[in-house]
Amino acid sequence: MNISTLDQLLDKLWSDYITLNPHALEIHNIFVERDEDVINDHIAFRTFNHPSVCVDVLAKPFLASGYVESGNYDFPSKKLNAKHFEHPDKTKPKIFISELRLEDFDAELNEIVNRMLSQVPENASDNFAFCVSGRPWTVTLDEYEKLLEKSEYAAWLSVFGFRANHFTVLANELNSLDNMTDLNALVRENGFLLNESGGAIKGSKDQMLEQSSTLAGKVDVTFDCENTKKIPACYYEFAMRYPKKDGELFQGFIAKSADKIFESTNQRKS
Ligand code: OOG
Ligand code: NI
């Protein structure tokens, strides 16, 4: 199907995401069976800060659909920048896009990434659905492992490319649960693992945002036509937002919490 509208793009992102990450659909369905309206707070993407694929390039279809840049973030230890985008129609999910700062890494990482990026067809990002096109390059197991030593994020991106890294259930809209502790208990009771890095609940009411996330489910990735390895793909996030002084719910992100949420796709223990 030719994807040319925002709703088609959001549908495609969801179908790609639940195909790769059946655990997210299972959790989604647990809420649906409880008669909940599952509202998606935000969708996140990862990329490199190279001019051909940077945050502003991935943001193009969203900007063209009415989204507005609404916040930017710095992750010094992971060497990432990020921005979030909001739509005037508040029923549309926020978009969170991060990018790896290539200049903060050594020549070896840059050589591997440049070789990957040289395979991205020119004008590829003109395609409205570029952000759900997956990985446009080849990567060997040796390259993956070298990237993993330097950056979990770079290694993840080398394998999974451009797609939704996660969707996020807006906990505020769940009628049968009114706090993150009970939500996490429900997810755990159903057999899913949570990202415990820095504690299961990241953030606080004072910060106006509490978040938790599953640990990404592992999928088989075949390298070099022969070596298959289990690699954490994507995760499902849960977010409870609290009102600002003006009574409106806080819509931003908290860098200290996000720093830990990124680790939901880690291959190694942090
Ligand atoms: C993004 C992690 C940050 C949030 O809501 O704070 C995040 C990622 O893992 O790519 O999604
Ligand atoms: Ni998130």
Automatic annotation (TrEMBL):
Enzyme kind, highest EC tier: oxidoreductase
Protein keywords: Dioxygenase, Iron, Oxidoreductase
Coiled-coil regions listed: none
Cofactor: Fe(2+)
GO molecular-function terms, A-Z: dioxygenase activity
Enzyme Commission number(s): 1.13.11.93
UniProt keyword annotation of Oxidoreductase present: yes
Family, as annotated: Belongs to the 2-oxoadipate dioxygenase/decarboxylase family.
The protein's name in its UniProt record: 2-oxoadipate dioxygenase/decarboxylase
